Amino acid sequence: MEQKLSERVLNMATSATLAMAAKARELRAEGRDIIGLSLGEPDFNTPDFIKEAAIQAINDNYNSYSPVDGYADLKEAIINKFKRDNNLSYKPDQIVVSTGAKQSLANVALAMINPGDEIIIPAPYWVSYSDIVKLAEGVPVVVSTSIENDFKITPEQLEAAITPKTKMLWYSSPCNPSGSVYSKEELEALAEVLRKHPQIYIVSDEIYEHINFAGGHVSIAAIDGMYDRTVTVNGVSKAFAMTGWRIGFIGAPAWVARACNKIQGQITSGTNCIAQRATITALEAPVSKIQYMIDEFQKRRDLVLDLLRDIDGFQINVPEGAFYVFPNISSFFGKTLRGHKIESASDFSLYLLEQANVATVTGEAFGNPNCIRISYAASEKELREAMKRIKEVLS
Ligand code: PMP
Ligand code: GLU
Questions:
Q1: Could you tell me if the CB of 176 is within 6 A of ligand 1?
Q2: Ligand index nearest the alpha carbon of residue 206
Q3: 143 CA → ligand 1 middle, Å
Q4: Beta partners for 14?
């Protein structure tokens, strides 16, 4: 039978992070000793105190549909978290709990974007932003940032990208893939531009909030004039090592939250009830309970930076958060390594996979064709071995 897929899916790219993770899994199953540094996923187990809350929820017979936007007491815990960590005051009708921050972002896109609306996305950006925007028939306006400016968009670049069609600005801080963290001053400067353009909304993806080695996470919604136009996205996947539990959430203007609730009510309903119960325990805990993971990520960042600096040809910024390094490897373009011509970041990433058995992700997927992303959410032993192998195949 003829295969007739929608233009929508035909125009959509496959998630490069998930594709590389799948490829690494496949090669491992064939017996290859692959070190996976492609997926942004903590290698820790979910902390016991959170697992116990989930077991308790099962025993307490949480097994029915939850409210579409999340249990009331979970929304309360999220409200308290926003107050405690972000100086943001939300009411329950401004919170929507979803199946991962990924669904939170998709909800917002479908709720707010009309065909042709322009969405400014500073590059490098998280792999799914542009395709989620396109799914909603928006037009990603990608603004390239430079390693010299720590991969952050400047107020001048933002101003220059704005047109009468601009609807939103989407960014993450700490940033996946660059690890960059916007300071309060930097966000104030962006807010000053945005104040001149009141038609623009903001999606602030703060899922790496706690994985911040510089300290001082700032939510743009807390800056003068930004609260009513910002959707703050967060979740438990990263800081609480709960990627598979699938819980994300937003704090947003009530009209946006209502629309997301409506969409979710037709597409997925409320997310997994056990994961929601466990998330209450996660969010109510003091951040000190997960500090051991953050400290470990910082140690690994320092280790990876040290080891990479020892390899010729990598240009690197010092990432202050998340768990990625995003080196510029364009100095290898045009070279032939072990008979393989390197002409792009994809060639380079594939070369590392084939020759060094190390899985990374090409920067092209993040809107920067000169870089690759290396996740250091892996053990020290794996990181040392991976960097040794990379050095060998590049020398
Ligand atoms: N935003 C960013 C910046 C991410 O790196 C991720 C990675 N998972 C997500 C959103 C989605 O997270 P999740 O759906 O697991 O909550
Ligand atoms: N966000 C993670 C990453 O960037 C997980 C994979 C995904 O959801 O795309 O690798």
A1: yes
A2: 1
A3: 21
A4: none
Q: Which residue's CA is minimally distant from atom 5 of ligand 2?
A: 40
Q: Is the pLDDT of residue 228 over 90?
A: yes
pTM exceeds 0.90: yes
Q: With a 6 A CB cut-off, is 239 part of the ligand 1 pocket?
A: no
Query: Does any ligand 1 atom lie closer than 6 A to the CB of residue 17?
Result: no
Q: Does domain 7-45+290-394 sit in CATH 3.90.1150.10?
A: yes
Burial class (CB in 10 A: 0-12, 13-18, 19+), 315: middle
Tell me the CA distances in angstroms from 147 to 153, 166, 178, 305, 323, one per residue in order: 11, 26, 9, 15, 17
What is the number of the ligand 2 atom nearest to the C-alpha of 38?
10
Q: Which ligand is nearest to the CA of 125?
A: 1
Give per-residue pLDDT as tens, 88-113. 999 999 999 999 999 999 999 999 99
Does CATH place domain 48-286 in 3.40.50.10540?
Answer: no
Return the domain boundaries, the chain.
7-45+290-394, 48-286
The per-residue pLDDT for range 266-294, each reduced to its tens digit, is 999 999 999 999 999 999 999 999 999 99
pLDDT at 19: 85
Q: Which atom of ligand 2 is nearest to the CA of 40?
A: 10
pLDDT band of 23, cuts 50, 70, 90: confident
Instruction: Please give the sequence-ordered ranges of beta strands (E in DSSP) within 57-128, or none if there are none.
Output: 95-98, 118-123
pLDDT tens per residue, range 311-368: 999 999 999 999 999 999 999 999 999 999 999 999 999 999 999 999 999 999 999 9
Closest ligand by atom to 127 CA: 2
